[in-house]
Design brief:
Number of helices of chain A: 13
Helix content of chain A: 40-55%
CATH class of the largest domain in chain A: Alpha Beta
Order of helices and strands of chain A: HHHHEHEHEHEEHEHEHHEHEEHE
Structural class of chain A: alpha/beta
Strand order of the largest sheet of chain A: 7-6-8-9-10-11
Shape of chain A: elongated
Largest sheet of chain A: 6 strands, mixed
Number of strands of chain A: 11
Distance between the termini of chain A: 96 Å
Number of domains of chain A: 3
Oligomer: homodimer
CATH architecture of the largest domain in chain A: 3-Layer(aba) Sandwich
CATH superfamily of the largest domain in chain A: Response regulator
CATH topology of the largest domain in chain A: Rossmann fold
Radius of gyration of chain A: 27 Å
DNA sequence: CTGAAAGCGCTTACAG
DNA sequence: CTGAAAGCGCTTACAG
C-alpha cells in the first residue's frame, strides 16, 4: 500500500513535471536503468521479453525522453538550426522549407532562429542557438566572414548563397537564368541595361552583377550599375529617379522587392512599366505574379538548395546520406508583364 | 614543461571542440568549480578579486558556457519556441517578429519550429521542441485541442488566435475592424454580403463570421456564408463561381489569400473587381497593397500580439514582466481599390 | 566568501 | 543479455 500513491514530487524542469525518467521505468520493470536506455535506443541489444516489459512500463508511465539529458553525454541533439536575417524574405523561407523536409527525413528537427536588425544581433543569435544544435545553416547571412569562420569551428556549418573560407556554399548557378534574361531583353530590342544593385557587401549581389555584366557584354548591350541599394521595396522606390535618369530602357534589379518598389514609384510618377521601360527582378517572391504589372524575374529552386544544405550538414555530422543524382542547382527566367518591347526613342 | 602543450583532447560534442569547461577555468584560476559557476552567474556572491581572476581565465580559455548542461540541473534554457503551421503565412511571421523582439528583451531566445503538412506532423514537431524550451507559443495552430492541453501540461503555453480550455489566448478583437468594414460597404450601397469562409475548424474563422454576421444584421444587410474553404489563393480561385452565382455585390473573404485568389479568378473570367463586385479580406498581408486591384482588408497589430504572448509566457515562467498600459488589442479597416460603389443592378 | 558533494537524466565502456 | 559505475558540464544546498 505504501508505494501506491507516489507523492507529487516537486520538480525543477519547466514549471510542471513529475515527468518519468528511465529510473522510474527501471524500478517498474525491475531492471537496471542502463538496460532501459538500451532497450529504448539500441534495438536488438536487449532480450525481446525484457524489452517488452520495459516498453510497457515506459508507456504506462507516459515516459518522454529528455533530449537535453541525452545530449550531455552524446553531444548530439538531433536538431539543426537555420539562422536567418529575415524570415519574411521569400528566398529564406523557401530555403527553410526545403531544409525542414530534408531534416525530417533524417530524423532531425530544424529550428529557425531569426535576427532581423543588425549583424551584431545575428551574431548573438547564432551563438545562442549553436550549443543546442548539431549543425547550422546560414541562409543569406550578413554575418562578417570572421564570425562565420569562428562559428564553423564550433559546429558543422553550411551556407546558402554566401562564400566564406573553405566552407560549403550551396548556391544556385545564376548564369543560366541571367543569360535567358539578357537574351529575352535583347530580343525585345533593348540596347542598354541598368542594374539596380543590392547591398554592397552581399556575395550574391556581386554574383548577379558579374553574370549580368558578362551576358550583356557578350551580346553587345550597354550595361551599368546603379547602387548599392537596400534589398527592399522602399529602396526601390527611392531609386526610381536615378533609374529613369540613366536612360536605360531595361532595369534589372538585384531582387524582386527592389523591382516592385521601382514599379510602384514609376506608377506614382506617371511612368509606364513596361511602356516606358522594362523591369525584371530576382527570386520570384510571393506577390510577383499578382503585382501590377506582374513581374518578370529569375528564380532558383530554393527548396532544393535547402535540401542540399541539410544533406551536406548530415555528411559533416556523420549521418548516412541517401545519395541522389547530382544535377546542377540552376536558375531560370520567368517572363511576365513587366518586360516588353523597348520604346522607340528615349 | 609537461603541462604546457595540452593535448588536443578528443571530444564528443559536435564534431570539434576541446571547448573549455568551468573545470578548466577552475584549474587556471586556482579555485573550485562551484566558485567559477557563482562568479559567472551570481554577481556579488564572490569576492571582486577572485571574480576578476576567474573572468580573466574564462576569457583566456575562450570559455563558452554550455546551456544544455546548465539546463539539466536548473530546468531552464532561456529559450521559448513558436510552433507554427506555416511560416509563409504573414499573420504568423509578423506575430513571430513581435515575439522575437519581446523575447530578446527578457534575455530569451525565440526559436521557430514549423511543420507545414498535416496536424500530426505539427504535433510531432511540438513534442520534439518542447523539451528544449521553457515555454511555447502556438500561433494559429491546427492542433487538436486535446493535444494542445497535453502539451500545456508539460510546458507553459500560450496561443494566438485560438482558444482551448482555460489556456491564454491572445486574440485581437475582430469586432471594430469588421464594424468598420460593414459600415464602409453599406455606405457604398451594398445590400448583400457573402462571406467566403475559411477552414471549418478554425477558431478565428468562426469569430470573423460571427462578427460579420452580427454587424451586417445590425445594419439590415443580407449576409450568408460560402464555405468552408482552405485559406489559400488556389481555394479563392476555385470559389469564384460560387461567389459570383450568389448574387452578392460584396464578398468578404476569410483572409487575404482567399480574396486575392478570388480576384485573380475574376480577372481571368473577365469579371471586374470592384466594378462587378467588391472584395475585402483580412490580415493585410505582404502584397495586398500592390495587388491589382490593391486589396481592402481588416488588419490587426500582430507585432503587439506576439509581444503579449511572450509577456504572458514570461509571467508563467516566473520572469518579472515590465508592465505596460493594457490597451485592448484591436483591428482596423484598411481601404484600398478592391471595394467600391455597388453596381446598380445584378 | 569558498569548497566539497550530490544531483540533473541520460549513455556507454567495462565486466560478468 | 544485463548490471554497476563513471561521466557529460553545470548548479546549489550545506558547511565552514
Amino acid at each position: 500500500m505504501s508505494d501506491v500513491s507516489e507523492p507529487q514530487r516537486p520538480t525543477r524542469n519547466g514549471r510542471k513535471s513529475g515527468a518519468a525518467t528511465i529510473y522510474d521505468i527501471a524500478r517498474v520493470a525491475g531492471v537496471n536503468p542502463s538496460t532501459v536506455s538500451r532497450a529504448l535506443n539500441k534495438p536488438g541489444r536487449v532480450s525481446a521479453t525484457t524489452e517488452a516489459r520495459i516498453r510497457a512500463a515506459a508507456a504506462e508511465l507516459n515516459f518522454q525522453e529528455n533530449p537535453l539529458a541525452r545530449a550531455l553525454p552524446t553531444g548530439r541533439t538531433n536538431t539543426i538550426a537555420a539562422v536567418v536575417a529575415d524570415m519574411t524574405n521569400p528566398v529564406v523561407f523557401n530555403t527553410v522549407r526545403g531544409a525542414e523536409n530534408a531534416a525530417a527525413r533524417y530524423g532531425f528537427t530544424l529550428i529557425v532562429a531569426e535576427s532581423q536588425e543588425s549583424g551584431s544581433i545575428e551574431a548573438a543569435t547564432a551563438d545562442r542557438v549553436a550549443p543546442f544544435v548539431d549543425g547550422i545553416i546560414l541562409a543569406t547571412t550578413r554575418l562578417p566572414e570572421e564570425h562565420i569562420l569562428r562559428l564553423a569551428e564550433r559546429k558543422p556549418l553550411v551556407m546558402i548563397n554566401r562564400a566564406a573560407g573553405e566552407l560549403v556554399n550551396i548556391a544556385p548557378d545564376v548564369t543560366p537564368g541571367i543569360e535567358e534574361l539578357v537574351e529575352h531583353l535583347a530580343s525585345l530590342g533593348h540596347r542598354s541595361i541598368a542594374y539596380l544593385g543590392g547591398p554592397a557587401r552581399s556575395w550574391i549581389n556581386t554574383r548577379r552583377w558579374q553574370a549580368l555584366f558578362d551576358a550583356a557584354r557578350a551580346r553587345g548591350l550597354a550595361v551599368f550599375e546603379i547602387g548599392p541599394n537596400s534589398p527592399t521595396i522602399a529602396a526601390g522606390t527611392l531609386a526610381f529617379e536615378r533609374a529613369q535618369a540613366s536612360g536605360a530602357s531595361a532595369i534589372v534589379a538585384y531582387n524582386d522587392l527592389l523591382a516592385l518598389g521601382l514599379i510602384r514609384a514609376a506608377r506614382e510618377q506617371g511612368a509606364s512599366v513596361p511602356g516606358d521601360f522594362s523591369v525584371a527582378g530576382f527570386d520570384d517572391i510571393f506577390g510577383a505574379d499578382f503585382a501590377n504589372p506582374s513581374l518578370t524575374t529569375v528564380r532558383a529552386d530554393l527548396l532544393e538548395a535547402g535540401t542540399r544544405a541539410v544533406e551536406s550538414l548530415m555528411r559533416e555530422i556523420g549521418v548516412d546520406v541517401i545519395e541522389r543524382p547530382d544535377a546542377p542547382l540552376s536558375t531560370a527566367l520567368v517572363v511576365r508583364e513587366s518586360t516588353a518591347v523597348a520604346p522607340r526613342a528615349r
